[in-house]
Design a protein that fits this description.
This protein is of the alpha/beta class. The protein has 6 helices and 10 strands, in the order ββαβαβααβαβββαββ. The chain has helices at 43-52, 68-76, 86-94, 105-114, 139-150, 199-205, and strands at 8-11, 35-41, 59-62, 80-84, 123-129, 151-162, 170-179, 182-191, 211-216, 221-227. The radius of gyration is 17 Å and the shape is globular.
Length: 228
């Protein structure tokens, strides 16, 4: 069954007269009703935008679903934005099954026909946020392998991982870009983590990439910049 079209959108960057961003409708079906926790500095986001700041016409992938705030910010910089509601596709494919059940070959094949279905080297950057934490031990390396294929050499991926390996539940966040170095972090509730990671396991996960850099935040989130 085809997925609803709202799970994906493509928006082209461009500055309208007066500096306004290109208009776009947006939806965020997998993260409704979040409560704003705070607006805080983000070293990982600053590093990400430091890479693309002096360029234009790049192609960026946002796996958090389309939000007007993120759409406006990135397209106003003159970049093309692909938005994909990765978690909605994950939920549509696997339902409420445990992460350990994300190994059915037919479901995995269906998932990759809906998510991350792009050509080699298509993207100059990926905002993965915290979506990789929802993946079990079979699906996760396959997703990382796909990310490695669809990004260009020397491009950046920004990903978040919770840093406390003893947590039985972790917050469910949304992330909205306020500035090149700050985020509005919203919390909707809590969830059971599929996996928890230390620095070594994250480095091992991205072993095919050129480098991995860590920043720790007060929300016990580990911001990670992965360079292809």
């Amino acid at each position: 069954m085809p997925l609803p079209g709202s799970f994906k959108s493509i928006l082209r960057g461009g500055r309208a007269p007066g500096g306004a961003s290109t208009p776009a409708n947006s939806s965020f079906p997998s993260r409704k009703g979040d409560v704003v926790v705070n607006t805080r500095q983000s070293r990982g986001l600053e590093e990400f935008f430091g890479y693309i700041r002096d360029q234009s016409g790049l192609t960026i992938l946002d796996l958090g679903g389309a939000t007007q705030q993120n759409v406006s910010f990135i397209t106003n910089l003159g970049h093309r934005l692909y938005s994909e509601d990765f978690l909605a596709i994950l939920r549509e494919t696997f339902g409420k099954e445990a992460p350990d059940d994300q190994s059915n070959a037919g479901q995995v094949d269906y998932f990759f026909r809906q998510a991350l279905d792009y050509g080699p080297g298509q993207f100059d950057g990926v905002l993965a946020w915290d979506v990789l934490e929802y993946l079990g031990p079979v699906l996760l390396p396959a997703v990382v392998e796909r990310l490695h294929r669809i990004v260009k050499p020397k491009s950046y991926i920004l990903a978040f991982f919770h840093s406390d390996a003893k947590l039985e539940a972790v917050p469910f966040y949304s992330f909205r870009i306020q500035a090149m170095n700050s985020l509005q972090v919203g919390q909707q509730g809590a969830r059971q983590p599929a996996q928890l990671f230390n620095n070594r396991s994250v480095e091992k996960l991205f072993g095919k990439f050129d480098s991995v850099k860590f920043f720790l935040t007060r929300e016990r989130l580990r911001e990670v910049i992965i360079k292809a």
